[in-house]
Design brief:
By secondary structure, the protein is of the alpha/beta class. The protein folds into two domains: 121 residues, 3-Layer(aba) Sandwich (Rossmann fold), CATH 3.40.50.2300; 91 residues, Winged helix-like DNA-binding domain superfamily/Winged helix DNA-binding domain (Arc Repressor Mutant, subunit A, Orthogonal Bundle), CATH 1.10.10.10. The protein has a five-stranded parallel β-sheet, with helices on both faces. Strands 6-7-8-9 form a four-stranded antiparallel β-sheet, covered by helices on one side. Strands 10-12-11 form a three-stranded antiparallel β-sheet. Helix 2 runs parallel beside helix 3 and helix 6 crosses helix 7. The longest helix has 18 residues. The protein binds calcium ion. Calcium ion binds next to loops.
């Protein structure tokens, strides 16, 4: 199922888009702030991002810049009230695939979504939908985790950390590499946040799944 990430802080608009896309068979996830948006967009679970520019914590352009800066090729449609040609140009030059202004008709948004998804299908190879190791399965579409046959929910950042380790079983990641991949710019350099989150994952997924490599970092047990 196609999964679309909607970043929109205005509840009324968010639910309008959500309802429309759902009724056309798309799976949607909506967030209203830039921080959550970037974390989710950097995960592998989405096919398309619909991005508002005016967000409470950061500007949508910054999310786009971070995404592209970290190598993400996730298709992005900017949907904003800003109709200045300068904004349009910086959006498209900043790596957005399309730019649409509010107010808008849902039919037009849907048409643009379909065009983007069609282009992606042609150019990208199929992504795996799940990653599995030992008794744990990560579902990259729904962002849920199955542990010993039972489904559980993980907060976005924990999921992203698990996903990073599961993508490369046996490979050792330094704390710095994990910080870069999972937290991006958003951490205090002196913090032990990686160790704390590895602790969370061990508690939820099993204590022996993630091994400590002393003096180096962590790896997923093969
Ligand atoms: Ca807004």
């Amino acid at each position: 199922m196609v999964h679309i990430l909607i970043v929109e802080d205005e509840q009324r608009i968010a639910s309008f888009i959500e309802k429309g896309l759902k009724s056309h068979g798309y799976l949607t996830t909506t967030v209203g702030d830039a921080q959550a948006a970037l974390t989710l967009a950097m995960s592998e679970g989405f096919d398309l991002l619909i991005l508002d520019l005016g967000l409470p914590d950061r500007d949508g352009f910054e999310i786009l810049a971070d995404l592209r800066g970290q190598g993400s090729k996730l298709p992005v449609i900017i949907l904003t009230a800003r109709d200045d040609i300068k904004d349009k140009v910086s959006g498209l030059e900043g790596g957005a695939d399309d730019y649409m202004t509010k107010p808008f008709r849902f039919e037009e948004l849907l048409a643009r979504v379909r065009v983007r998804l069609r282009t992606v299908k042609k150019t990208s190879t199929t992504k795996p939908l799940t990653l599995a190791a030992h008794n744990v399965v990560l579902d990259l579409r729904t962002r849920r985790v199955k542990v010993n046959e039972e489904w559980i929910e993980l907060p976005a950042r924990e999921f992203l950390l698990a996903e990073t380790l599961f993508q490369h079983p046996g490979q050792v990641f330094s704390r710095q590499q994990l910080l870069d991949r999972v937290w991006g710019y958003d951490y205090d350099p002196g913090s032990n946040i990686v160790d704390v989150y590895v602790g969370y994952l061990r508690k939820k997924l099993g204590s022996s799944l993630i091994q400590t490599v002393r003096g180096v970092g962590y790896r997923l047990r093969r």
